[in-house]
Write a structure and sequence with these properties.
- By secondary structure, the chain is an alpha/beta fold.
- Helix content is 41%, strand content 15%.
- The chain is built from 13 helices and 12 strands.
- α6 links the parallel β5 and β6.
- α5 runs parallel beside α6.
- The N and C termini lie far apart (43 Å).
- The structure holds nicotinamide-adenine-dinucleotide.
- The site of nicotinamide-adenine-dinucleotide has 30 residues, from α2, α5 and β7.
- Nicotinamide-adenine-dinucleotide binds next to α2, α5 and β7.
Amino acid sequence: MPLSPKYAANYPGESGYNLKMEKILVTGGAGFIGSEFVRKCVEKGFSTIVVDKLTYAGDLKRIECVKDFITFYPADTADQVKIEDIFKKEKPQIVVHFAAESHVDRSILDPFSFIESNVKGTLNLLNMARNYHTDLFINISTDEVYGELGNEGYFTEESPLNPNSPYSVSKAAQDMLGRAYYRTFGLPVITIRPSNNYGPWQYPEKLIPVVIYKALNGEPIPVYGKGENVREWLYVSDCAEGIFSIIEKGKAGEIYNLGSGFEKRNIEVVREICKILDEEFPENRPHENLITFVKDRPGHDFRYGLDSHKVMKEVGFVAKTTFEEGIRKTVKWYIENISWLNEKAQYLREFWAKTYKH
Ligand code: NAD
């Protein structure tokens, strides 16, 4: 198991968890990470309820393979009447809350929808979980709430919150509501802060699928600034497994960073994808020639890097997929599912034009 060198030295070994057959309600289960989690819920034998508003980012195709084993409710998390009906009927023991407006660039264009979904939606769910006596509320946050780092250091769970974009501000507010419901009402809330996820089924507004789409279609690959920004890349199935480990072994009221230890500059990510495509899809070789630097994102955080020793020590989780393995699997998945990628991309022209400027 080729772990990140950051964690290889003191990984305590497999935890081998033993989850009970509980009723789990997953919000945002038609999204990128939520759908990975839903597919695994079904595999692990949970009775699985999915709530999703099906925004532009939601797609039931992601969970089509498990559709006969889940109950799906199309609903907005901020809708008090609909969400109450669902809780009244289903009385879930566990809530895993992924549903969110999730893209920083969109939060720059339209911050209001981020407050509506991420803040009001979370408050509504916490309130229902309290009223209907949910045993565990898993609040899916992000490493972005900590703000940016320079070249050195890592964020621990104790680091102050310094969110810089409307997206990360809305997520920080979500975390503070979770904290309040734990402290004030005793609702068992755990907040998880994953680093940047990647893998199959990610909507092509995020860096990796944008690069793959553009490269496959022989179009200029937009890279913000000089491509120097650093992110910590967590393969989506590792993220989902980490969440299960925390459900099993995490403590209520706690926060867990969930990173991989695999940090990369954006330009390194883009070059790695181009290299893989040169082998797997030689038509537009060399793909690197398509790289085009565009005007940097306003307020672009330079680097995120998590200290994930707490989740490793207390929960026994460590990410198993190296970046090299994960990115190769991801590129191959998009080549095999190019029609899905193209179908999504056709609606993104206007958004890309507003976002990537010279
Ligand atoms: P996504 O954008 O792919 O999916 C979000 C899902 O939530 C979609 O299915 C959408 O339809 C649904 N949704 C949005 N608003 C809703 C609302 N008001 N009511 C009901 N459903 C709604 O997002 P993702 O990348 O899968 O991220 C999932 C969660 O993980 C988010 O909370 C995000 O902040 C967090 N996160 C993501 C990353 C990442 O790299 N993708 C990293 C860290 C944390």
